[in-house]
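User: What would this chain look like folded?
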Amino acid sequence: MQCKRTPRPHLSPVHGNWPSKQDYESQLSQTFEEQRAGAQCANTGESLLRFLIPLLLVLGACSQTEAARQTEMASDATLSGLDWLAGYWLECDGASQTAEAWVGAGSDLLVGVNHARSSRGASFEYMRIGPRADGRLAFFGSPGGAPAVAFALISLERQRAVFENPDHDFPQRIIYAREGDRLIGRVEGETGGQVRSLEWRYEAARFGEDCPRRR
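Assistant: Here's the prediction, encoded as structure tokens.
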């Protein structure tokens, strides 16, 4: 016997018309019969719950353990684990380009600058990655030379780093990932009640190199 979930009957319009009382009473009668048949499955359902509840608890504990492990790894991370950011990176996207450079590998401070330009003009951002007052690593961004905003390092695995500041307007997360000679930069978060993200896919380039000009 297969156990089926019996929905509670409700009035709903059909082709723009509401069903009559007789139709609703018929639904009630049918629902009663289904519920009586479903009662025979109660013991089976209870046995299934006895099995599922411990399983869900174990899965939840594993998820919490993984999150705690990533947090612990991030808190113990040293700046040398981010040396893969160093270099000059260039993204060419039609008539626009974005260049990002990071220096300081092997030291206790990584310093970066981002410069973007298009037909609408140019913009820049000063960046650095280093320890906060509590010793944990953080990304400090200063777009357009504004006062720096800190994003704490919350995850660092191989060549992927996630920084987060849940109190910032946008973005709330900054993500960097290295894939060979490609660097992926991503910002994401919620703004205006909507989830939004932006991504840049940089290629390794010679320092100061520009994108080829389109004719």
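The chain has two domains: 21-76, 79-204. If you want, I can go into more detail on any region.
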